[in-house]
Amino acid sequence: MKAHSLFARTALVLGLVFLYLPILSMIVFSFNNSRLVTVWDAAHSPTLKWYVALLSNEQILRAAWLSIRIAVISASAAVVLGTLAGMALARLGAFRGRMLLAGMTAAPIVMPEVITGLSLLLLFVALEQLIGWPKGVGAVTITLAHITFCMAYVTVVVQSRLAGFDESLEEAAMDLGARPLRVFLRITLPLILPAIASGWLLAFTLSWDDLVITQFVAGPGSSTLPMVIFSKVRFGVTPDVNALATIMVLLVATGIAISTVWMRARQKRRARDLQLAAAANL
Amino acid sequence: MKLDPDSAYVRIANLTKRFGDFVAVDDVSLDIRRGEIFCLLGGSGSGKTTLLRMLAGFESPSAGTIRIDGADMSAIPPYERPVNMMFQSYALFPHMSVERNVAFGLEQEGVGREQIRRQVGEILDIVKMGGFGARKPHQLSGGQRQRVALARALVKRPKLLLLDEPLAALDKKLREHTQFELINIQQRLGVTFIVVTHDQEEAMTLGTRLGVMNHGKIAQIGTPSDIYESPATRFVADFIGSVNMFEGRVSDDGADYLRIQCGELGCTVRAERTVSCTRGATVWTAIRPEKINISRQPFGAGAPQAGSAENLVRGTVREIAYMGDMSIYLVQIDSGRMMRVTLPNIMRGAERPIAREESVWLSWHGSSPVILTE
Amino acid sequence: MVAGIPTLWLLVLFLIPFIIVFRISFSEVRLAIPPYTPLLSWRHGAPVLQLHWSAYRFLFTDTLYVSSYLYSLKVAAVSTLCCLLIGYPMAYAIARSDAASRPVLLMLIVLPFWTSFLLRVYAWIGLLKNNGVINNVLMYLGIVHHPLALLQTDFAVYIGIVYSYLPFMILPLYANLEKHDGTLLEAAADLGARPLRAFLRVTLPQSFAGIVAGSLLVFIPAVGEYVIPTLLGRTDQIMIGRVLSDEFFENRDWPVASAVAIVILLLLVVPIMLFQRLERRQLEAAK
What we know:
The structure holds three protein chains of three kinds.
Chain A lengths: L1 H28 L19 H7 L2 H34 L6 H13 L2 H19 L7 H25 L4 H8 L4 H30 L2 H6 L7 H9 L5 H43 L1
Helix pairs in contact in A: 1-11, 2-11, 3-6, 3-8, 3-10, 4-6, 6-8, 7-8
Chain B lengths: L7 E12 L2 E12 L3 E6 L5 H9 L6 E6 L2 E2 L10 E4 L11 H11 L4 H14 L15 H13 L5 E5 L7 H18 L2 E6 L2 H7 L2 E6 L2 E6 L1 H6 L4 H6 L4 E10 L3 E6 L4 E6 L9 E6 L5 E3 L16 E11 L3 E8 L4 E7 L14 E5 L6 E3 L2
Parallel strand pairs in B: 3-8, 3-9, 6-7, 7-8
Antiparallel strand pairs in B: 1-2, 1-4, 4-5, 9-10, 11-12, 11-14, 12-13, 14-20, 15-19, 16-17, 16-19, 17-18
Helix pairs in contact in B: 2-3, 2-4, 3-4
Chain C lengths: L3 H21 L16 E3 L2 E3 L5 H8 L1 H34 L5 H13 L2 H12 L4 H8 L13 H25 L3 H9 L4 H12 L1 H16 L3 H6 L7 H10 L4 H33 L1
Antiparallel strand pairs in C: 1-2
Helix pairs in contact in C: 1-13, 2-13, 3-7, 3-10, 4-7, 5-7, 7-10, 8-9, 10-13, 12-13
């Protein structure tokens, strides 16, 4: 038992090093003075000059702002559609078109992005020919595309939360006189809210991060942040991208640290409550 | 309020529920009286829960009707029925405090805030949860949750309260205590209860009357002692308590007695006549283990020939299980069959208790056997 | 209505687009906007569906396409295997660690996923370049005297894919391993199985569903991967995702790009259906 548990533990540590080493190196070199990214210029480092350069880069700032707007709208719309789809799949039982909906929500998750991107662009082109909308490609088509692939993820999250949901809670509410809409608003929604929230965060991240699909459905003047980064790094490394990466890692890490601390505190409180309840039984 | 004990307060008529090819509830007709505790007793898959869910309105019947206090429930959705339910899992809303849980039903009716507060306080006092209003469900013990669930279901003073395995989630000690409390509360509020349970002991103590269900049908309805002492079918006799059952043939029928020739038993059974059957008919004799005497010497004078006596067989003790308050003897009778006999342990340290492999006589009174035709 | 709205949305923005791709793959390229022959032509007032096989014929005559498909399958298969070999012990170690540290370890696995995928791939350029961190360290230690060519190799692509997709392998494996009943291993030990044997005979077969789910989650998107080979990979041998993109953007040959997409889908249809079946079963098990 000992030997292979030791092996697994070593693998875990090495794996985590593998996962974090590149991120760490980006953070370190974002403070490097040299343009040569990977050669540490000990004489003039650390420096914040790449952060200054980044924050005065109009193009990056504009792209970031566009990406944020698209991600917020896409995530919000995806949450609504994904919650509906998740509810339908988890609760409606066998309805007509169930297989179709289940297939269509699961497929975008594994579909190679180039194919999704290509098919969406061809749709938009065909639509424009047919009904004259959308007029060209740009922020609108990007958002539509993002909603589509994000909602698939939200559906999965909501659906699996509902699968572990005690349906008698809803029946109890109905039994106590609540009509179906009230049951949803007072009981179901508050209880699946954590799943919806994590679905929203997931959707936001996916939209914020997406490059391949976006490239297909973007037009001139609608470059998102990943598109700008891609065009920069495709032709070599640039130190201001390191600075950008550091800022993003920092934001995410802070957010996750806060949520972890909060969750720990909650867990502790729960454990205490459980002891209290157990004591009451005696 | 005038209570007519025989009036049908809840009338279930020819109720059937099918799920595809499976018939969960099969043409059930049942009257429940105002103010009684009616227990539906049955194994899993007997249809008792489906019947309860149709009363609550969660399932719609495939055929038949439900009337509560004269009103047809067919077209009435669960949220408009004068019925409340206490769920097996309690189904307390985890994101609401005890108070909010109990208030939920009243809020749906648009009752004023002050009145809600008063009614919630009252019912929580009745279930002895007065000081716990601000707690969340996960801060309560199993027994406390059960009380909150009861309070929540009772606060609207429903015409009918449905309880789905109300005590199943509690441990044994707590269960016994809660049983009596439940009866207490029921009598105090005068609400009609329908309890679904698979636990016969629970059904016996709680129920004014029981309905035993099997394969979607009601096998027998009656008071607990009716069901135990005079089971109507082999299924009921076997399902409630334990029983020794032997197939036989009616050899003689008098005005107030029957004689039954039981090959499996190796003796003639003489029993009080409780059913109508003709000579030669195949019947089953059911004898409860506690209604059999076990002794080293046969009762009565002289030593009767084995096989010729009535209500008397010889056997050998094969197993003895000491249960504390009583002992169970497994006796192999001369025909080869096993019989189960229980004896209360009245004396501490009896002088010469019957031991394993000892030869014994089993006998019973003529009123003990129940003769069953189906 | 609950089912209707999302179904309608996905019909219009997911299913119909595939039908269009399918249809365009049977068109011929032409110099126009859009650059393909019309989907339906009208003759004597009735629509006529004309199918051209030229795009597909082209795919199988030019060796570029066939070799790109094979190369993509190879890269995806090798990367998936590497992910499994690295991810399984990690998932196992997390599932066997004490309950308090499990969420922290899982968070550590998922955290990189929340930071930009593109930037994480980009980080490897800095590590793998000729004058990058790895070569600098190796030369400093005197292990090599000339920088190793690490970037723009198959190796770099494997690293990039394994690095990016590792969480997708670990999470389903963990979900599976975590549910295992510890007493089974104790029972195996009690019956005389040594730890390795107990692992091979008890744990491994039970985790098969997790292995398949994780492998499919890596393999399927890896076949069509575009960003990683573009940034880290060879220039003389490109993967099929890149071929599709180039056909579309550089050559403006929409029918061929569509045909490339359809053939990728044909290659992936079995793994995708397998994955969907697994998902369904898992959801049912959760119930």
